[in-house]
Every structure is written in C-alpha cells, then in structure tokens.
Amino acid sequence: MPLSDHEQRMLDQIESALYAEDPKFASSVRGGNLRAPSARRRLQGVALFVLGLAMLVCGVAINATWIGGLPILSVIGFIVMFGGVVFAITGSRASGPVDKSAPSSGSVRAKRGKSPGGSFTSRMEDRFRRRFDE
Hints:
The chain is an all-alpha fold. 66% of the residues lie in helices and 3% in strands. It has 2 domains: 1-32 and 101-134, no CATH class; 34-92.
C-alpha cells in the first residue's frame, strides 16, 4: 500500500533530520545499493551449483579422494554448491554515481537552521500532540 502525500512528507522530514543529527549513522543504516541478480549471474550460479553437485557425488563414489576417512572432494563440492547458490541469489553492487537524493548534513542544517524547539524527537512529539489535540 503506497504512502499518502502527508506520510511521505513526514518520512522525508524524519530522514532529513536523521541525516542532520547523525550523518554517519544514517549512511550506515541506509544500506547498500544492491541490484537484483541478472540472468547471466543466475546462470553462472546454477552452473557452479551443478559443478559442486557433481564434485559431491564423485567425491563419495571415488575412494581415492578420501583423506583420513573424510571425502575431501565432497566437502569442496558442497562449498562450491553453496557458493553457487549465494552467487545466483545476490546481485552485484550498483555501479555508477552515488545517490544524490540523500541530503548531505551541511545542506540540511543550512535549510533547517537552528530551531528553538529542542531535539528532533521532542519536536516530533510536539507535532504529534498538536495533531491529536485539534
């Protein structure tokens, strides 16, 4: 369900205030720019999975690959299978310019200035109370 215009404005204000008060935390919480995996990446992941599965089966079937009672080729095959699945389901990081929609701390402070209302949370609580008192 999409947000209403008022809710979107409030969310933008909260985000701006978060960037203004603690830009380092805000940028770490914002997360990475992960994309959905491409068809080529998925195909490569499936190929790795099949290769790992073949290694796993061959490692159990061929006794020459056992070292100390442990089928080493099978263990490596399982790791390759796991890596193939991870490779297939994760997308690569988006390359290109950094997202310009996120405000920098300097521009937010310049726009907002020093308001006498106190901290961000107290201002939001005041707005909330005023809205329900009306």
